[in-house]
Amino acid sequence: MSEDAKSRIMEFVKTQKKSKLYFNDLCKAVPEIKMMQAKKIVNELVNEGQLKYWSSGSTTMYMLPSEGDVDKEEKGMN
Amino acid sequence: MALKHATPLIDELEKGPWPSFVSDVKRMAPKNPMCEDWLGVMELSYKEKEGHWKHGGIVGVLGYGGGIIGRYCDRPDLFPAIAHFHTVRINQPASKYYTTEVLRKLCDLWEPRGSGLTNMHGSTGDIVLLGTTTDNLEPLFYELTHELGMDLGGSGSNMRTPEGCLGMSRCEWACINTQDIIYDLTMEYQDALHRPMFPYKFKFKSSGCPCDCVAAIARSDCSIIGTWRDKIRIDQESVRAYAAGELTPHAGAGGTEKRKFDINAEVINLCPTKCMEWDGKNLKIWDEDCTRCMHCIRVMPRALRPGVDTGATILVGAKAPILEGAQMSSVVIPFIKMEPPYEEFKEFVEKMWDWWMENGKNRERLGETIQRLTLREFLKATDLTPDPRMVNTPRFNPYIFYDPAEVPGGWEHDAAAFRQRHQA
Q1: Can you tell me the ipTM of this complex?
Q2: Which of chain B's residues have a Cβ under 8 Å away from the Cβ of A39?
Q3: What is the pTM of this model?
């Protein structure tokens, strides 16, 4: 279940035009899963390095590691 | 020593009678080039009346989705030392008690790893370390957790670092143990504190009494405010002593001289619900009408004290303006005992979070979700019974729409039959 949910979330992220997505957006990929449970799955994806956090300081979003490279960000390229 | 950047505009901020952060940063500038460039960018911002900070980024420490906030200067050509100037939030101990030894260690740890500038404290109470670079984050975090036993605070769409007043440690009015509550919530909800899951930020704040010294009612999504449900304790001898000028009113806050205290003018007539009476000998309080404004207790602390059957009132939904205007939190649990391990309260919290996560829009605070979907829906989701004490203002709309499921017997509306009797 968790592996299936993970792959659906990742497929969803890869097909989005936006590079940064809210947690609520990710949950649309797994509508049958309660959000508390979905949060654990998304955290696993972050721990595995499949997703990355992006934070404005007040809001947190998620992105693919290919989109969120620290070196690029610090050189002003992201 | 001459500074790298001339700062005629921000020098003005050193001239008032108050302590100046510009003076503080200047004192650090010879030791740290980040501080020098920080003064330069501040001066430029004052000159141009524009900010030069970009916020947001992917920087953080492994396993945490909060506590570090990426900050970048958009003029790295002019101010290279602060091209990266990330903020680190540190979870403060409950009620901000620490030894000077810990503060010294924290400064010793911070100076070589960042600008050396701190903000004691941020709005959520965190110790804020201002300005470091990405390569310093992991070593700083390691030393912070391993050598000081301290942890990062919250940021982003996380539960933020819970905050409480001094509570029972110093205050005779504390009706709940705010420090224990804050510590318990911090430990219980570590995952929510470090890994984001909400539509937006979520803050707990707890005040020991209705004076609400941490302004929980104005600043927190969930306010836990100490109260009592029995009677205000009255020492009539002391009331008479205040009236006779034998005791200093306001506990000396308005001047330490003893003076004759006009109880009618300064207490009775200022009671918002007019629930008190003074006949020159005895003070009478109709406690059932008291709204816990604390005024009478504050001005005659030797004579009046909160009751002994204490607990908390839980309010939800305060926030500063973002999507909607600022709002204060609303009562949802008029009284709860709030004794460890706080199971009843935590059951409520988890129902509240489930509802907000399922229904909240992105960047919508809990109070805004309630405003959009109504308090009634929130109460249903959290299994709370509506109570007159939750009403802030009497309704102006005379129409009442009942849900058939909530009326004994209910009813069914047959639209087709209705149309046979009434033309469209």
Answers
A1: 0.90
A2: 195, 197, 357
A3: 0.92
